[in-house]
What we know:
Elements: H1 2-20, E1 23-31, E2 34-41, E3 44-50, E4 62-67, E5 94-98, E6 102-108, H2 110-127
Antiparallel strand pairs: 1-2, 1-4, 2-3, 3-6, 5-6
Helix pairs in contact: 1-2
Residues 135, 137-138, 140, 150, 152-153, 155 line the site of zinc ion (ZN).
Amino acid sequence: MLKWVGLVGCVVIMAAWGVSTVWAFSWTWPEGAGIRQCGLFYGFISFASLQGPAAPTSMMQGWEVERISTDDVPANGISAHGLVIRGLIPRSPGILRRPGGSNALFIPLWMPLILFAIPTAILWYRDRRPPTGHCQTCAYNLTGNVTGVCPECGETI
Ligand SMILES: [Zn+2]
């Protein structure tokens, strides 16, 4: 059962990864003098805190889904949805700091993918069963065996 949960988790993460190369998803809310934003884009999950000029009061708040375009980034370096910081599109995990107290944490999706994939692979590996006609304990081929006992390991069949 758990191995299926893991498999579904892996598929969901990979699907999110694929979708996030074309669409950017964000949730934005005001916090103090600035805004905070969670995002999914370019195969990254982002947590950003934008302050001062990086956080115009006109910036859309709430849910936003936008098709990613690299040529709609304005001069201040923040796109309409505030996700793409000019010239600093994430290529690696880490924390990005901008003058004025803005910063963003980027977590690449391969990190949660590995967290799901490794235990899932182990569960699937441990759950593999010898084919029918073979001993389920030691995988010995029992073709023609009528004794009811595996001659290899002594297990009752
Ligand atoms: Zn056996």
